[in-house]
Amino acid sequence: MMNMLLLAVFPLAMIFGAVWDLATMTIPNVLTVALAAMFFVLVPFAGLGWEAVALHAGAGLLMLIVGMALFGFGWIGGGDAKFVAAIALWLGWSDLPAYLIVASVLGGALTLLLLWFRTLPLPLFMLKRECIARLHERRGGIPYGVALGAAGLFMFQHSVWFEAAAQAA
Hints:
With about 170 residues, this protein is an all-alpha fold. It is about 80% helix and about 0% strand.
């Protein structure tokens, strides 16, 4: 049972955050708080010692500080800043650099795709869909939570969580 939680919590949170951000251009606080809380609930089952937990917490705290600074400059949304911090908490220092690279590449691709999409005329029935119309707005934002979540899913297979679940099975 616990190995199923180790395998399910993080990926489901990544999918939920990405889809929610795509549909609403927000990432709910309850998601990031629940993701952070579940880290501490599941830590004993992943076999992480206190030192490793402290290092994971340090990675999350650093990304929260960096994310809030980027939010302060208006470069990312507040939900994105909190989401990336919760993801960094789960991934820790060892996977954080690769995660940030993957998220940046996916975020760049998403941005280019949306910029192209915004040049296309949309049929009326699509413009009546609020989430599609919002994504099509030329001055609209980029739902970067999609890239953050997708990168989290990509990196999960390399994480201590995936290894712990595989050993428990």
